[in-house]
Amino acid sequence: MGSLSLTKFQIPLVSSFVLLSIVATILNPVTAAKQCDFPAIFSFGASNADTGGLAASFYPYSPKKPYGETYFNRSTGRYSDGRIILDFIAQSFGIPFLSAYLDSLGTNFSHGANFAVGGSTIKTAGGSSPFSLGIQYSHFERLKNTSQFISSKGGVFATLMPKQEYFSEALYTFDMGQNDLTAGFMSNKTLQQVNASIPDIVQSFTSTIKNISNFGAKSFWIHNIGPLGCLSSILTNFRSAERDNNGCAKAYNEVVQFFNQNLKEALAKLRKDIPLAAITYVDIYSAKYSLSATQRNMDLSFHM
């Protein structure tokens, strides 16, 4: 594998304020534990959901301060100054923060695992990370197929593996797709070409979700993509792009909206294909764009 450049990953610092605002919008931690009783979480995604996968795989590129400084007081492999949305979800269910599947040091999978790795894409081609959704799925499949054999050894082995029934009782979370679009933008494709690739990307996404449901998974929490046109990386690289009233690159956000609409429609179809599953479409785009729209009236500066 060739050398990696951290700039390829397009990984922003996510402030705790932003995440707290988003979580308050999409999840009520007071009532969640009463309404849901998930014993485990299995997470798939990229930097927004990474709890140490990229850091374990490419240690020289592991996040340094200010990552981790406001909650953990140290870098933990998260691309945030504190906790990420996944952490707040876990806390609301009363389960520990998820260990990254790729991290072999001090990991505990008794309440799930995090397969997310910063820089990952849904499709294999064009990604800056080797850990595409297909690879993450294979990691999940391996954990599912080997965990009970490991647990049967007893002792500490049993305490570090999820129970068999947890695979059907767990919440499955997905936060992915941003890097697929960003890879298209940064490879000099036209916006029309990026748009044309979206149906195939979404089809791969929902096919993987359906494959996971074949293992007995019933509860899915799926984020759409946030407003990439508001990111500094897009605004810096495409300075001539028309800006909206909030200073975001309008055309790039329209591509994201097209992806999100395709995803929403595909998930509606998926609900019919697997009627016993509970599929929640989480509108991260609206939550983040709302923050972007209001920040000018607040004495705050933050990144998404």
TrEMBL record:
- Give a single Pfam family match: Lipase_GDSL
> Any signal peptide, and if so, which residues?
1-32
InterPro entries from the UniProt entry: GDSL, SGNH_hydro_sf
Q: Does the keyword Aminoacyl-tRNA synthetase apply?
A: no
What's in the keyword line of the UniProt record?
Glycoprotein, Signal
Question: Which branch of life, at top level?
Answer: Eukaryota
MF terms from GO for this chain are: hydrolase activity, acting on ester bonds
Entry similarity comment:
Belongs to the 'GDSL' lipolytic enzyme family.
Designated name of the protein: Uncharacterized protein
Organism the protein comes from: Psophocarpus tetragonolobus
